[in-house]
Design brief:
Chain lengths: 98, 313
């Protein structure tokens, strides 16, 4: 079940510009609105909106934070690494890195 | 391919360069970032079932609301970190639903059941503080722009969890009697757990890519000291004993027990009297995972059944 990315924008008061505050995954626009509202509840936002990442057209595609990296999957080597990591620490070995 | 060599990138980030785009990363940078985000995401994720077990023990409906709000925050934080991993080419669904319990990378400390309200609030006071110590350092120092921005929300909410923990630790300790004893018992096993969580001491530390790539700023020992700077005085101020004290001469916090030492999972007790063990023994214990590892991961992955139905539709 691949869920597309929606970018979340919000502002705290009328005068402010909308600011990019995060992102969520959702299968459709309605769920995206719900997930954004429930996830980014750390402020009493005056306004919030969601935009499908696919709808954002960067003027310079080389310099856009909204372009998803289609990097090759490195999962196998990472996911099956041994489980010795401390939170934020670096004691987790990547397979073949020993 | 990459715009910079590994050496160029290391120098650039130490001069303040912020990485924003995939083609600015080297393979080494990317791998170090992926591991850091995986540990972060898995820790937030597994804290949810760990906290849930004890939240059921909340002493009032209001406190139940606070406790479940904390669990909701943790799940959102996990979701955010897995989402960042997607932009690095990882598959969030596979990471959450496709891995075996022992493949998750949260610390050993979160493989233990939290069994009552005192243990939950001490987890908020001690473990969430460890989370803030680590993530606060990442927020201040990380060279990865998207993570820095995502952590603004995370840090705000973790601060609330910590306040919740401190407030309840004070409240139960002030009540005295059995309430205070339950806080002391929780601190007795959870304090050394958090101390160990920060990992190898600096003089034994293997080469750290996370520091070289400026994915964090402080070493393990610096982080451990930062955590003790606030944890030890908090406990002392409410009459709770901790096995550490401030050493005037060395100007740092010193542990009053053999570190690292062995842990009895059934008794929830550190075998401090049996003396120091080696870090490879610690890594062995971590690798074996703790008693609640399977149960916590399974409780997260239970949704798989309905996911299958949705996919078949």
């Amino acid at each position: 079940m691949k869920e597309p990315v929606y970018e979340v924008f919000a502002r705290k008061a009328r005068e402010e510009p909308l600011r990019h505050i995060g992102f969520i995954n959702a299968t459709d626009d309605d769920l995206a609105r719900v997930y954004a509202w429930k996830t980014y509840d750390e402020q009493n936002w005056a306004e919030m909106c969601v935009i499908p990442r696919s709808a954002i057209i960067p003027v310079d595609p080389g310099e856009s934070q909204f372009v998803t990296a289609n990097a090759p999957a490195t999962e196998d080597s990472i996911v099956h690494a041994r489980a010795t990591g401390a939170y934020g620490g670096s004691d987790v070995a990547i397979k073949g890195d020993a | 391919m990459a715009r910079y060599t590994d050496e160029e990138l290391k120098e650039k980030v130490h001069n303040g360069f912020i990485v924003e785009y995939p083609d600015e990363m080297t393979e080494g940078y990317r791998n170090a970032l992926i591991v850091q985000l995986l540990v972060q995401a898995d820790t937030e994720l597994i804290s949810a079932p760990a906290y849930f077990g004890a939240a059921k023990d909340a002493p009032s409906t209001n406190t139940m609301v606070s406790a479940t709000a904390i669990i909701q925050d943790e799940l959102a934080h996990a979701n955010i970190a897995y989402r960042l991993l997607e932009d690095l080419g990882m598959d969030k669904e596979q990471l959450v639903y496709g891995r075996q319990a022992h493949e998750f990378k949260h610390p050993y400390g979160f493989d233990h059941p939290l069994e009552n309200w005192a243990e939950l609030v001490v987890a908020n006071g001690l473990y969430d503080r460890a989370g803030i110590t680590l993530l606060g350092d990442v927020f201040k120092n990380t060279s990865y722009g998207p993570l820095k921005r995502a952590l603004v929300k995370v840090d705000q909410e973790e601060t609330f969890h910590l306040r919740h923990g401190e407030m309840w630790m004070k409240r139960l300790s002030a009540a005295g009697g059995e309430a205070k004893e339950s806080i002391q018992r929780a601190v007795d096993w959870m304090f050394p757990m958090a101390v160990e969580w920060f990992g190898l001491p600096d003089d034994m530390k293997r080469h750290s890519g996370q520091l070289d790539y400026k994915l964090k700023g402080m070493t393990n020992d610096e982080l451990r000291q930062t955590w003790m700077q606030s944890t030890v005085p908090l406990c002392e101020s409410i009459g709770i004993e901790v096995p550490a004290h401030w050493d005037e001469g060395r100007e740092r916090f010193v542990l009053d027990y053999a570190f690292p030492c062995e842990y009895d999972e059934d008794e929830k007790r550190w075998l401090m009297d049996e003396g120091e063990i080696s870090w490879s023994q610690v890594f062995e214990r971590w690798k074996g995972r703790g008693p609640a590892n399977k149960r916590f991961v399974e409780s997260i992955q239970e949704g798989r059944a309905f996911r299958g139905m949705l996919e078949a539709a």
